[in-house]
Structures are given as C-alpha cells and as structure tokens.
Amino acid sequence: MKDTIQVGLLGLGTVGTGVIEILHNNKESIKHKTGCEVKVKKALVHDLHKDRNLPGDSVELTDKYEDITDDPEIDVIVEVMGGVEHTLNVLLGAIENKKHIVSANKDLVAEHGEALFDAAVRNQTDLYYEASVAGGIPIIRSIVDGLSSDNIRKMMGIVNGTTNYILTKMSQDGSDFDEVLKEAQELGFAEADPTADVDGLDAARKMTILSILGFSMPTRLEDVKLKGIRGMSTADIDYADKLGYAIKLIGIAEHDEEGISLSVEPSLLPKSHPLSNVNDEYNAVYVYGDAVGETMFYGPGAGKGPTATAIVSDLIAVVKNIQLGTTGNNYVHPQHDRKLKSKADTYTKKYIRLHVLDQPGILMELTRVFAEKDISFDQIIQQPADSHEERELMMVTHSVNEEAFESAMEALEQLPSVRSVDSVFRVEGGDN
Amino acid sequence: MKDTIQVGLLGLGTVGTGVIEILHNNKESIKHKTGCEVKVKKALVHDLHKDRNLPGDSVELTDKYEDITDDPEIDVIVEVMGGVEHTLNVLLGAIENKKHIVSANKDLVAEHGEALFDAAVRNQTDLYYEASVAGGIPIIRSIVDGLSSDNIRKMMGIVNGTTNYILTKMSQDGSDFDEVLKEAQELGFAEADPTADVDGLDAARKMTILSILGFSMPTRLEDVKLKGIRGMSTADIDYADKLGYAIKLIGIAEHDEEGISLSVEPSLLPKSHPLSNVNDEYNAVYVYGDAVGETMFYGPGAGKGPTATAIVSDLIAVVKNIQLGTTGNNYVHPQHDRKLKSKADTYTKKYIRLHVLDQPGILMELTRVFAEKDISFDQIIQQPADSHEERELMMVTHSVNEEAFESAMEALEQLPSVRSVDSVFRVEGGDN
C-alpha cells in the first residue's frame, strides 16, 4: 500500500479551490480513513500568474493538461473545468494513461457517459461522478453503497433548483411565469440565459446520470422524454391545487422487465406525497427499492460547499479502492445493456385542461372519445370560462396507456366542440 | 491483505438469517468492493437442532458464545441477539479479544455506548452500529461518510414508526388516541406492550445514538428530555391544524458553543416543513450542517430487509478498514467530551392550550404574566369552551428561554382565572 496518493486537478475555480481547502482542513481525518496521505500535486489553470492564496502544501500550476494527464506520479484526476468535447478527449487520454477519474461534469457524463465507461472498463480504472448530480444530496453514494444490495425500481426527482424555485413562487404568490423568472434572475436563482434550466435539459442530464447509476445501465440524454416549464400557467397551478395536487418539474426513471423509461416533465403530485412539499431551490430524490421500500433524500442542489464535499467523498472512495486493489470494479460502470421501454408498454395518469363549447351533451361526447381507447376518469371539474359560450374542463384520468392516450387526444382535437386543449400534464405519486 | 474475512454471528433470528442471505446473494459484488471474501464461520443459536435452511456454505452452529468470541480465526462479530446487560459483557469480552463489532442493538448502544467505545478505543477495534437506528434510512452512513467533513448543528428526527402512525391516523381520521392505538396493535404497527414506543423511550434511544455519531460526543440516554404521546388530545391536533401546524413526536439534537441539548417530545411543525409531511409508519431525519445546509433522509424505520441491509453495509465498511489497516479510527468512536447545555441557555417556541374564566380583562392578565418574563406571542386564538363560564385559549409564543417559560407557567397556574392548563408543546421548524 502507498503512503501518499497524488492527485491532479483539472480546473481551479471555486469548486477546485474548495476541494483543496477540504483536503487541507481534513488532512488527518482523510489519513485515518484511507490509511494514506492524499495530496494535490498539480492543477491546470488558465492564468499562471494570478494570485491564488491556496492553503497547505504548494500546488504546482500548469496551463498544459498533458503535464497532469501524463505525469506518472499522479494516480487520480479530479476534473472540475467543465466543457464537453475537449474535456472528453482530455479525460479519455488520461484514462488510457491508467488515471482514475473523479468528475463533477454532468453535461459530459450525460452526453458521453458510454465512451468514458468503456475506456474505464478497458483500462480497469475508476470513474466516479457523484458530484455531477445534486451536490448536496448524498444520493449517488447512497444508491451505490447503501442500496447496492437492493433492486431499485423507480427514482423520482426534483433535481433542478431554478425551476423548483419558479414553480414554488408561482404557487405561493400567484405571480405568472415571466414575472417570477425575472425575479429569480435578479436574486441569482436563475441564469441570465435560463434555457437549460427552464426547458428541462439540466434536469434531464441529472436523471440520465441517476438512471445510469441506479439501474446500472448506460442510458443516454436522448432517452429522456423532455418537457420544460416555460409558459406554465397559473391557472393549472390553481386547478391542481383545488384537485389536491402540487405541480412540480419531476424527473422519473422507471425500471421493469420491459426496460427503462426516462422523463422530465411538469407533473401533478398529491399534496400528501413528500416530494410535493420540496419547495424553493431545494432538490430531492425519491427512490423505490424492492427491499428498502420508499426512501427520499432531500437537500440543496448546488453550491460550492456541497459540490466540493461530494468530490472529496468520491476521491476518498477512489483512494480506498486503490489501496484495496479494487479499482475498475463494476459498481460505477454500468453492468447491463441499455434497454428502453416502448410507449405501448408505458402507463401513466394524465391531467388535461381544455375549453369546450357550452352545449348540452358535450361531456358525453368527450368521454366517449376516451372510452373508445379504454381511458376512464378519476376526477372531472367543469366550470364557466371567461367567454359565455365556453366552459372550462379539468380532467384527471386513471392510469392510461401512453399510445392510447395520444390517439385519444388526436381524436379529441378533431371534435368541433373542443375549442382548445390548454394543458396536458402527467399525474404521479398516487394510486392508479 | 487477507483473502477471506471470517465473521461470527451472535443470533440467528430473522435479521441474522437476512444477513447470511444478503452475504450469499451479493458474494461477488462484496468481493469486488472489499477485495476479499466475507464468510460467516459460526452462528450462536438457542436450539442446535432446529431446521434452518441457510443458503451458501455451511455455517457452524453453537450454543456457547465463547466458541465465537474466542475463535482466533474470526475477525468480526455481528451482534443481532438483542438484550442489554448480558450482551454488553459478551461484546466487551469479544473486544478484549480484538474482535471488530457490528451491532444492531439500539438499547445496548444507547445505554452502554461509552463502555463499548472505551473498550474499542483501548483495543483499536472497530465498532459499527448504523443498523441500530432507522434501518431503512442510510442516515448514519451519510452522517459519518457523506457529511464527515461538515459541522453538524442540528438533527431533527421522526424516528419511531408506531407513534408516527398513531399521530397520522389521529390527524387524518379524528379518532382518539386509545382507539388508534388499539387499531395499530391489531395491524401490527404497535406492540402488545406499547410503552417503549408511546412514551418516547425508543425514539430517545435512537436520538442518543444519532447525537453520538453526528456530534461525535458520548451522549447518554439520560441526557434526553423525554415526553411521549400517551393521552394526546385530538383537540390539540385540530387547533394545531388551524394554526398551520402538524403535531409530530420529534427528536431534536442541537449543538452549539454552550454544548448539546437532546429532547424527544410532541412538537408543532409548520405544514410547510418537510418533516410535517412524513406520515404513517415512515421515519425521517432532518440534518442541518454548516456546509451542506439542510438535508433530509426519509424511509421505512424498520423491517428485516432494511435492517439486514444496514448491517451488511456496516460489515463491508469494517472489512474495508481491516484491509486498509485503518480499524479503530475515530469516526465511529466519539472524539469530544460530553457537554450538555443548561436550561438557561435553551430557547424554544411553545404552544399552550388552556381554559380560563370568561371575564373581561383575562387576556390582559395572562399576557402580563408572560410579559414580565420577556415572553411575547406570535399567535393567539380565543374561543368559547363547552362550558358557558369558560373560554378556551391557544397561544404560540415567540422563541422563549426555557427557565423563564417554566417560571411564567408556574405563575400562570396560580391565577384564579386560569381553570386548567391543558397542553404545552414545543413548536419547531419555523422562524423564531
């Protein structure tokens, strides 16, 4: 066993600096846990001359990544520089040099996970990426360690703080989407360009990584059925409330004999469901396992402290593996082949809001269209619309087949009495 | 490093059998993680002749614990036999023989933790007890591993399934305490003798263990301020609901410069607080750390699957430590001396329900008693009582000093206009 494990740091921004600080502040405790010293030897930076004020032993700075990935004394590379294509090439090269990798880069892992896993398996190296999802929630460590002897069936997550903040404020204050988004940008809860958050891409990346780990299957970002919250109407939030639900942007990863299904979409959750009470910028992941039943992990989704903590936790795991001679094992690399579930095998509940003409027999006409596709309803609310000739309808179905539902909705839109289909959302977390 | 680590099992009931099953079913994955084989060599049983049908390699059965604790080939002892005084002696003997211990025995750890920790430290052995608290929630592993580089300030837990089930049903159905307790006993959610659950002792044991681990301080069961839910009134549950709160049996462990405070008592939680929506027999622990902020872990509190899973997870940690040469380190043995906070340093919000005479000036008289002790109110509800001469009052204070509150309550009970003080509960989880 080694006395010292040397680490190379790709990137030295806030998170990278946080990693050095934690390693320094917890030097003794890390030695106790791993039986050796963990030392950052080199760090990749843009500007070699910037004043950095790092604690502890001096770290060699370089602006050439090869100085780090080719250094035979470095065992583990911590990647906190971000970026996708260039970073992928740098890490693939490092893996060929038998370096173990810890990465906090969710874009990279969600988009190029398979290439990285393949390289790591071929080279028998470790590849850890807990920090890439929900930094403050020790969810991945829990799935991989705590629930590793269980069979995970379903994961439901509120994994994007920005959208959860927006939906919480819309629900609490009754303000409309654009107004709340602007406020969130002013408060720093939303980026100037909020696209990746608001349209669900960030959540989709995190759900991809959660499903890779939870189901041990190399799922891809493109497997995620994706719908964001842009233009979400306060009307739906109010009606959902009346029906006993909260609307949240929920990522759902399910696994059964037919394969897996992955989605990120605004969904109605019963108010009694623990996820429906996760508010503001908080994140949470609900996990259903055969042995453990239902478990939920709740915490802040991001931030320097949580992310750096998660990286160091991954780093300690890698160092332990090096000392135990168990690197490159199957627990962070997917064990199963990717198998997706077809629409024909997928069943969910749906919420629909629509405007219809105020004429006798309308409701019968509507329900007949659904009945023909074997779709029945759990709740229906009918009420006058703003216009006198129209009525507004909110309907919640029982569990329906995804294909049948789509074809019923097509038939519905053909009906002359249907003025507009305003919203269609998934309903989750209750009985079907 | 060893090829095989041999384990001795003290007890072979449902949980012990579950441990053997998990070790057998996950043989390969455990080898991948630890670099060696983990094998149960011997098990202690009452009846040597009972048919057991265990999977995997044959396990030697014995009815003499010394056969296990004195066996030089056995490295780790898993204790799942329960009991306190006798079990303590058996484990202390085993520790003197340099055996590492994994125990699921919360009564033992809560009552005799210090003796066990001292012996383990002296003998440089490991002592793991995650499974003793909230089996299904990987909370202890998360605190010890995931949050080990953080400074934990406060833990709030719903850690007893029976009482949470009773309070949930009382709140949802409006049934009274005795009725729901009887129903819970019939459904198997409460023991025939429900004392340890209903009076809060079970929750107090778990909070003691959580605070030992979270604060790394050898706290004792006797340090817990304890009040159960026996005789809880539906009136309080209803009033709390009107004021925007749920009543839960909450264990609270707090740590600041003055020391720690530990309590288990029925408390009012704002409905917006994630813990207030933990219902039925579920458990949850809310943790506040300096770096991570707020995190919550939610899951089933008990059961064969969760408990055996937690034990195997502890066992894997011990085996890794043996291989790394890092057993007997400080992370499961308390690092700090026990230091309790005095009442004079403790501040909480309170809910009071009382009956007063229906006379002018009563409210002024009451609030004067409190104002003299610097206690002011956040919410007051006054309404007619069943008797025409009386009124019922519900009051929620701002944060108050514990000593000042006690002396105000004494003064209050002296007032001729106060007919009865019906309930006093802690209020938690909101702003002070």
Automatic annotation (TrEMBL), chains A, B:
It catalyses: L-homoserine + NADP(+) = L-aspartate 4-semialdehyde + NADPH + H(+). It comes from the Bacteria. One of its GO terms (molecular function) is NADP binding. Its cofactor is a metal cation. Pathway: Amino-acid biosynthesis; L-threonine biosynthesis; L-threonine from L-aspartate: step 3/5; Amino-acid biosynthesis; L-methionine biosynthesis via de novo pathway; L-homoserine from L-aspartate: step 3/3. Keywords: Amino-acid biosynthesis, Metal-binding, Methionine biosynthesis, NAD, NADP, Oxidoreductase, Sodium, Threonine biosynthesis. This is Homoserine dehydrogenase. It comes from Salimicrobium flavidum.
